[in-house]
Amino acid sequence: MFLFELFGLFSLSALVMWAFLMAFFFNIFVYSLGVKRNTTLLISSLIMMVSYSATDYLYTWISYYNTTYFDWAIHDAITIASLIIAYSVVKRSSTSLLYLVTGLSINMILVLFMHLDVYIYGNQEPWILWDIYLYSVNVIDLTMVVALIVDRDFLGLHKLKNKTLNYFKSNDTHKVT
Question: d(Cα 146, Cα 31) in Å, to the nearest integer?
Fold first, then answer.
């Protein structure tokens, strides 16, 4: 809970929301230069900016009902579906799309674990899952922002995906029946 004590709840969410807004503005600039016009990069950054703005703590704080972890999981699932729909429309992906879908999927799993721990099991004592959730979600969010800005395979996720797919394709012929 060190990050909450250092930055506060609103500051972390505002930082991430601002970062996605800046990534969107950067991608508008790149799009206006005529670079990467036929990819999902601009649409992906718009979807991420709208998603993170809609689920910001400031907006959920003034909401008429309490936002739960399950609500954030639903928002992540809707965002993943929106990114996949954008890809199916454009038919040409940017490098950042895999980072966004992977990051949102990991965030959604962590949020569901937190929902299970806090709301289903009724746990109120901080433990290691809470720290893993806090640090992981923020690191993954900032990684997704970097992926939208640089649009490169800087962590090697595409190489890992391709090697994994090639491994399973090459093992299809060696199956024992």
Answer: 17
